[in-house]
Write the structure tokens for this entry.
Amino acid sequence: MIKPEERIVITGMGVLSPLGNCLEEFHQNLVEGKNGISEIEYPWSTGYKINHAGIVRDSASFHTVDLGQTAQGGRTTGLATAAVKTALANAEIEIHPMANRIGLVVGTAFGEAPGLEDEINDGIPTHDKPQSELGRMVRIQESIAENLGIIGPRHLVTTTCASGNHAISWAADLLKMAQADVMIAVGADTIGYVDMLGFSRLLLQAPEKCQPFDLHRKGTILSEGAGALVLESASFAKGRGADILAEVGGCGLSCDAAGPFESKAGETASLELAANKALSEARVRPEDVQYVSAHGSGTRLNDVKETNFLKRILGEHARNTPVSSIKSMLGHAQGAAASFEAIACVLSFKHNILYPTTNYETPDPKCDLDYIPNEARESRVETVMSNAFGVGGNNAIIIFKKWKGN
Amino acid sequence: MNPDSNRVVISDMAAATCLSTGVEGLLRQLRKGFNYSEKEDSDSAQPRRFRRFAKVSHDCSNLFRKTRLDSRLARYLVAAVDLDLGNRLCALGEAASANLGVVIGNFTGNCHSYCSYFLTATREGYDSVNPIHFPTTLLNYPTIQLNNAFSLQGSSTTTSSGFSAGLDAIGYAFIQLKLGKEQILLGGGIEEINDINIGYLERDNTISQSGVIRPFHKNRDGTVPGEGVGVLMLETIKHAQAGGRTGLCEIKAYRLMNGLSDDSESIFLKNATETIKHALADAKIRLGEIDAIFPSASGSQPGDELEGCLLRETFASHLCMIPIYPVKSIIGECFTAAGPLQCIAATHSLRLTNGSIVARDMERNTGDLNLPERLRASNNALIYSLGPDKSFSVLILSRCAQSLNKS
């Protein structure tokens, strides 16, 4: 039975990121303002100018799945599978008794395309390759399902950097349509040569560090990872006695509908459209928003545009609303970025702390809000807005709420 | 809010196939009929014999050269929508366009751009790559170009859930409208022929040598790789009425099933049958009320056999009375574009008024399945997409009651 008014809650999370492969490590490193960006080596480095990125590394807490033993798929699938498995374990959900009632929505910008580059570089014509390798470019959701035995509805959405929030939105909708009892929204991406090159050639990449909202910001830094959230209807979660972490209050989507190089800092109508949809669905007013997890990619245009948008949507309240971008520490994980930020919002509810924007050295007059510079801040918040703005103009905004039961 | 109050209709359509650009070209071929006969001199419609591929037709190629986009897939998506829906989209006005979103299913569409970009960079050097070509490597590039072309700011979603992504995109749009999150959306699928999708067919040895697609026919020898565009305008009935538009047909239900690759045939059939029955329950339609089926059947030996088993298992004794229209025999195997194109054919049958189909003695080559030569009027159509990855998506469309179209 369709229930548009059903409340959707989060009961489990899993993360593999440059700042840790479990929630505790992720949280602690964010609080301490650790830097997840490091120097990397690239196989095709001739003439290549950028050699910093955020990479998921093995750590003492990496206890879920050895990526090398993933039955199907490449690195992106491996990261996503591990995140999903952790999230389900945290939610205390066993797959097999209800495998056909557990679904999956994957958000990704490039999927397994980086893995495809190895094949292309070998010079072997792609049509000679067996399907299992060719098809992995975008069939991550299938591979995750095969790895874990999930047979509920599965989808893949690709809206570049907004993919993670888009996956959460779609998963919530499928729960309201009663097409599953549990939905897992996972954002995942790994770094390939094409996206590193693409961002670099468009002068969107910084050489060493990401400095969102800083006057001297030089761009973003790409990274990789996976973040998974387990979503259920509130009634189902309460029925099985689940520990509810937060509520997905509302989701709003929009598109700039301008060319990729024609977006202007003052044109925020499409962002306001997405925000108003999310606020309306969440039944909150703009002044109820107590914290904004910014897209904050560190590019010259985006940070100003986002600041202008927040001033318009929050009005006078914008000056009193803390805003921060954890991309300053994690880098820009593309399809996984919004998932990281969603997980961070939920952890903020749990720990009563707001994560900082690090590398903030010089204020920009055009970006003049409170960006929680360099140090985490204790604060009890109950309603947060998480922004995700993708290359090409995809926008996805989610309002998360602290779960207060009835 | 009562979700039953958000009834969803298809109010317009756009298409580009190997036949022509524009929905009318597809409908013209459907009116000519389907032919499974092996006798090419029969009085019935001639079987369509494809050359190696069912590529988007030449007139679309001419049309889309004007759009100056860097991706062939984006060009013919915009061209097809412009031809069939351009006037309507312009007539919506700025305010309405600002709220109109797009959902497109696209499976392998960017692989050519991605490979080309990568090879240029690695073989000719970092500085040889044109920076503005980077967005074309993204799978959502064609969808974004459609948003840009008509200033559609509602949303822009690209789904790539496999072979059924086009039907899933329509399903996603239906869900958004049903939940009251949107009032109007464009939903559809696009595909172009490339090494990946040809590779799938070659790997499974399902490419026809004869160039003729004969779904369910005992002498079928495979399918023909194709490409195309199928886009539907979906609205809530209230929104359509407020804008003075009528519904062409109503979308009653959408369901999706995903199996595992090592599922036995019996498990797949059981789950797929349940999925169809769930969809019928959602639509509040009885099994016996389905009077047209638009299958995924593409002429492949194993694929059509599996679909035949599915239809028999689901419909049992009703099956012989239900006409089945394998649209891919006309348009080729268009992968993610096929589902929306099947919907367009179904919409046409739901608009016809030439009387209901009567079972007839069919040539035994098609077994017990009812495969008429001509598209006939129907009231409730089942459309499904089945991929070799065991993804199975189902849509149920119904004829619009007169009352729905009252202003």
Summary: Chain B has twelve helices and nine strands. The CA atoms of residues 33 and 374 of chain B lie 5 Å apart.
